[in-house]
Amino acid sequence: MRRWGMVIDLDRCTGCGACMAACHQENNLTAAGPEQTRRDRAFHWLKMLPTESRLGDEVMTRYLPQPCFQCDNPPCVRVCPVHATYLNHEGIVGQVYARCIGCRYCMAACPYNAKVFNWFEPEWPGDMKRKANPDVSLRPKGVVEKCTFCHHRINRAKEEARVEGRDVRDGDVIPACAENCPTQAIAFGDLNDPRSRVSQLVSGPRVFRLQEDLGTEPKVFYLAEKE
């Protein structure tokens, strides 16, 4: 059984935000507009998390790309009263928009603030709606949404592999964030395949996960910067 995971190499990441912009376009996230932005209701599925580190007297600020961590022990799933969020058999935390009642318990339970609430009806100026990605559903007002590891791309890779009569190969699935990273800082693949690139990366000495002490078992790993 596959177990999808992601590795982000902070030694390669420049914090340019290309991953965030690609996610926004790939997954049909609408622009919030000035009024909703003023009310702090703009949202992204992938955020740039500012962090600070100290080297001697110098304080360094850097930005960590932060998608949903697709936890193996997800607190959001346990608190959903209508089972609108779930952990699937390949380790992805899914969201059933038609079932979501907008209570936001899952948002409160997520220690990483990975989930976002859709406060407003999507607006598509001009002919922008025609340019939406047909593989990703448009979400209505009043539901919680989040990163899916570009689940539609996973399904497409599976279908292509089935037609060709083979298994999904390492590198067949590339989420939009990884595809658009100019420094190739993001790797994606099957953590249960010891030959996959992500499996090899997570076995290295630089690997860490955010807030591991919480026991949520995130499947997004970071590689620390080299000294």
Shape: globular
Question: What is the ordering of alpha helices and beta strands?
Answer: EHHEEHEEHEEHHEHEE
| Number of continuous helical runs | 7
Detail the poorly predicted runs. Answer: none
Oligomer: single chain
User: Distance N terminus to C terminus?
Assistant: 37 Å
Total count of strands? 10
Q: Helical percent range? A: 10-25%
Structural class: alpha+beta
What's the gyration radius in Å? 18 Å
pLDDT average, as an integer? 93
Strand order of the largest sheet: 8-1-10-9
Largest sheet: 4 strands, mixed
Q: What proportion of the residues form beta strands (DSSP E)?
A: 15-25%
Structural summary, described in words:
With 227 residues, the protein is α+β, with helices and mostly antiparallel strands. The chain has helices spanning 18-26, 33-38, 75-79, 105-109, 151-163, 176-179, 197-202; strands spanning 4-9, 47-55, 58-66, 85-87, 93-95, 116-117, 144-145, 186-190, 207-208, 220-223. The longest helix is centred in the C-terminal third of the chain and has 13 residues, at 151-163.
Structure keywords:
two-stranded antiparallel ribbon; alpha+beta; 227 residues; 21% helix
